[in-house]
């Protein structure tokens, strides 16, 4: 079965084809970073309009690269949520319309389930069960994964997600959009010994996260240090490094705690922040010492992409799930509401 996947939950237009027995056949992602950088963040209306402009050319491009015609597609999967409702509507309307025109089934896919299962597109793929850290701009969650659709929430952020904290802190440091990757690049030049920031909620039991206080701590540190800094650029880099170290340590501590509490020996990292080099290095080192394995997708599959949507769509379409003609995009949608696969 060959499935066309369409991702339009935010500011990336992602298209891919996944085929059972062959894997990922072709994919393309168009990023709107340049469009939104002038505004310092994603403008929902502009994002929706740009999806309208790019989605059909990208579908043609991916089909051409895969050397497939529309008649070769056996199903269409599109992101139905969570995300920006206007952006979701574009992908859902196009995806459902193409499926109807081609006479094939369609399915709305959960965006975070796509991230969760993206590491299974790689070799070696993590076997079930495992603990997953979903860490992105909108979500920071620890999930116990027994199988597809069989999820238990272990912990999540009570305020800012880690990626959101990265982006907001980047603004405090006068860095351009997208803030998270730019902050990580600045932190590479920082001295990890100059400042030590708190590791929030690690001194109490539980697996929830909180990063808003760390962002506020960074703000006060900047106000205290920059006016008297001999080298302001060096101070910004040192503060960026201290912030990144605090986030990474917090995520590692909670993941280690989650593995110990569940008894699992496999950890999956997924979502945009999982591409962070320091997070991967620290997590691999600590988990190896703990006797656990760590899995994550290649950086291109950490950000929003059509490959993860096509893959999850293939799994669920093969199990007989499909959507009626109506489309139901959802800005908010709990992954725990998804039906399990046999």
TrEMBL record:
Belongs to the KAE1 / TsaD family. Required for the formation of a threonylcarbamoyl group on adenosine at position 37 (t(6)A37) in tRNAs that read codons beginning with adenine. Is involved in the transfer of the threonylcarbamoyl moiety of threonylcarbamoyl-AMP (TC-AMP) to the N6 group of A37, together with TsaE and TsaB. TsaD likely plays a direct catalytic role in this reaction. Keywords: Acyltransferase, Cytoplasm, Iron, Metal-binding, Transferase, tRNA processing. It comes from Thioalkalicoccus limnaeus. Transmembrane segments: none annotated. The keyword Translocase does not apply. Fe cation binds at residues 111, 115, 304. HAMAP family: TsaD. Gene3D superfamilies: 3.30.420.40. PANTHER family: TRNA N6-ADENOSINE THREONYLCARBAMOYLTRANSFERASE, TRNA N6-ADENOSINE THREONYLCARBAMOYLTRANSFERASE, MITOCHONDRIAL. Binds 1 Fe(2+) ion per subunit. It comes from the Bacteria. This is tRNA N6-adenosine threonylcarbamoyltransferase. Residues 24-311 form the Gcp-like domain. It is an enzyme of class 2 (transferase). SUPFAM superfamilies: Actin-like ATPase domain. InterPro entries: ATPase_NBD, Gcp-like_dom, KAE1/TsaD, Peptidase_M22_CS, TsaD. It is found in: Cytoplasm. It catalyses: L-threonylcarbamoyladenylate + adenosine(37) in tRNA = N(6)-L-threonylcarbamoyladenosine(37) in tRNA + AMP + H(+). Its EC number is 2.3.1.234. Substrate binds at residues 134-138, 167, 180, 276. Pfam families: TsaD. The keyword Transferase applies. The gene is tsaD. GO terms for molecular function: tRNA N(6)-L-threonylcarbamoyladenine synthase activity. Its main location: cytoplasm. Its cofactor is Fe(2+).
């Amino acid at each position: 079965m060959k499935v066309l996947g369409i991702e339009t939950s935010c500011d990336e237009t992602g298209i891919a084809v996944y085929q059972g027995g062959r894997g990922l056949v072709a994919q393309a992602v168009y990023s709107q970073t340049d469009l939104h950088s002038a505004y310092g963040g994603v403008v929902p209306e502009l994002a929706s309009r740009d999806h309208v402009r790019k989605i059909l050319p990208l579908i043609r491009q991916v089909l051409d690269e895969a050397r497939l015609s529309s008649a070769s597609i056996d199903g269409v999967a599109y992101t139905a949520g969570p995300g920006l409702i206007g952006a979701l509507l574009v992908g859902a309307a196009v995806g459902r319309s193409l499926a109807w025109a081609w006479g094939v089934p369609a399915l709305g896919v959960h965006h975070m389930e796509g991230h969760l299962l993206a590491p299974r597109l790689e070799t070696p793929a993590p076997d079930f069960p495992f603990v997953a850290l979903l860490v992105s701009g909108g979500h920071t969650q620890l999930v116990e994964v027994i199988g597809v659709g069989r999820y238990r929430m272990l912990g999540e952020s009570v305020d800012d997600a880690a990626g959101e904290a990265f982006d907001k802190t980047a603004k405090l440091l006068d860095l351009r959009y997208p803030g998270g990757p730019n902050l990580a690049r600045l932190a590479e030049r920082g001295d990890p010994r100059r400042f030590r920031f708190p590791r929030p909620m690690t001194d109490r039991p539980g697996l929830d996260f909180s990063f808003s206080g760390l962002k506020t701590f960074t703000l006060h540190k900047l106000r205290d240090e920059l006016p008297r800094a001999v080298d302001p650029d060096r101070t910004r880099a040192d503060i960026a490094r201290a912030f990144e170290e605090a986030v990474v340590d917090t995520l590692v501590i909670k993941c280690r705690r989650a593995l110990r509490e569940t008894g699992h020996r496999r950890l999956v990292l997924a979502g945009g922040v999982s591409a962070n080099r320091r997070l991967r290095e620290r997590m691999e080192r600590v988990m190896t010492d703990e006797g656990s394995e760590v899995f994550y997708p290649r950086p291109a599959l950490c950000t929003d992409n059509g490959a993860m949507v096509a893959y999850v769509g293939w799994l669920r379409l093969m199990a007989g799930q499909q959507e009626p003609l109506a489309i139901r995009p959802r800005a908010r949608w709990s992954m725990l509401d998804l039906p399990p696969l046999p």
